[in-house]
Amino acid sequence: MKLKIQKEEIQHALQSIQGIVDKKTTMPILSHFLLKADKEASLMATDLDIALKGPLKAEIIKKGSLCIPARKLFEIAKEVDGDISLETQDNNWIKVTSGKSTFKLMGLPEEDFPVLPEMEKSDELNISADTLKTMIEKTIYATGESDTRYTLNGLLMHLKPVKNKIELKIVGTDGHRLSVIAADINGKISEEKKLILPKKAAMELKKLIEGSSENITIYISKNHIFFSTDHIVLTSRLIEGTYPNYEQVVPKDNDKKVIIDKIAFLKALRRTSIMSRERTNAVRLDLEDDKITLISMNPDIGEAREELAAQYKGEPMSVGYNARYLMDILQAMDGESVSLELQEPLSPTLLLEAGNEDYKCVVMPMRT
To answer: Closest by alpha carbon to 179, among 155, 146, 204?
Structure first.
C-alpha cells in the first residue's frame, strides 16, 4: 500500500477517531485504526462498543491495507509541516514520510481488526444534524457517570409513531435530575421503541456532527444503532435493560411558579456556591413576593447570601438544591428567563425554558 495525503486531511480524520480508539486496552488492535486503500481510501476505528467508518481523501499509488497505531500517527501528523506519504513495508511496518522527516511504525494485519456489525436498513429515521446536536446537548449532562444502574449511563431515545411523523424524545437522568426534550422527525419504524445510547457514543456523535448542515440518517437493529452522514457511519452497541419511567418523574401539578432572569440566576448561583460544602454544593433558595434570596453556609468557612428580583406570588418557602445541578440546567437552556415550578420543599422541581414546551428539566431538592 502506498498513498499520499494532505496534512490537514489526515489530521482531521485522525482527530475524529481519537475518542474511539482504546488507549488503555489489553487488546493492542483496539489502539489501531484500519486504513484501506482500494478504489478509494477509508479508515475504521472501534473500541468494540462504538465504531467509526469514513472516507479519506488520498492519492492512491498502490492498493492495500494495514492497522496503524492511531495515537502515534496523529501526533506525527500534527507535528510535520508538509503532506504525508504512507507506504507499507515487510512484516506490517509502515513508513511515514513528510518533507525530510521519516518515521517507521509497527502496524498489525487487517485480519486482526474486529469485524464491524453490518448496517441494517429496516427501521430508518431522518433528522437534521443541528436538531440532533441540540437534543444531545440539552440532555447529556444529566446522565449517570459510571452508575451501578448501568441503564442510567446513557441517553434514552424514545421513538413513537404519530400520524405521518415520529415523535422522538431524548432523556438523560442520574436519579437526582432529569432532562427530556422532544422533536418530530421523519422516517419509518415498525413499532414504538425505547433505545439506550451509551454516553460515550452520544458524545462522539455530537463531535462528529458539530457544525454540520447535513441530515443524519439513523438505522436501528436489535443490538446496534447506526448514524450515517456524508459517507461517515458511527455505529454503537445499545445498552440492554429497562430505563426508568421518565414520564412519571416529570411533575404535572406544581402550583408555585417563579420566573427569573436566567443569566442573573446563573451568576448568583456561581457566587453563592463558592461558600457551600464541596461534597454537596448545597444552596438554599428563600422565596418571597417578587424576590429570591440565595444562601449557602459552611460552618468551617462562612456563608454567602444574595438577593435577586423574581416574579413570585405566594407563601414564603425555602428549598435547597445542589447548585451544580441547577447551573448545569441553566447552561443548557436558551432564552432570557427560566421558570421554576414547585410544590413542597422536598418534591421534584420542574424547570422550563422560556417559550419552549418541548424541553423540560426536573431536579430533586435536598435537605438544607
So the answer is: 155
- Say which CATH topology domain 250-363 has: DNA Polymerase III; Chain A, domain 2 (3.10.150)
Q: Strand, helix or coil at 207? A: helix
Return the amino acid letter for 60.
Answer: I
- Beta-bridge partners for 165: 162
The CA distance from 215 to 209, in Å, is 10
The CA R_g of the chain, rounded to the nearest whole Å, is 25
What span, in angstroms and rounded, lies between the C-alpha atoms of 153 and 306?
35
Tell me the backbone φ, ψ of residue 221, rounded to 5 degrees. Answer: -120, -175
List, in sequence order, every residue forming a beta bridge with 181; answer none if it has no partner: 170, 359
Every domain of the chain with CATH number 3.10.150.10 lies at 2-112, 123-248, 250-363
- How buried is 306 (Cβ within 10 angstroms: 0-12 exposed, 13-18 middle, 19+ buried)? middle
Name the H helices within the chain: 7-15, 70-79, 129-137, 199-209, 246-249, 262-273, 323-332
Q: Look up the pTM and report it.
A: 0.93
SS3 label, residue 171: strand
Share of residues in the chain with pLDDT > 90 (%): 88
- The one-character DSSP state at 142 is G
Just give the CATH number of 2-112.
3.10.150.10
pLDDT reading at 318 higher than 80: yes
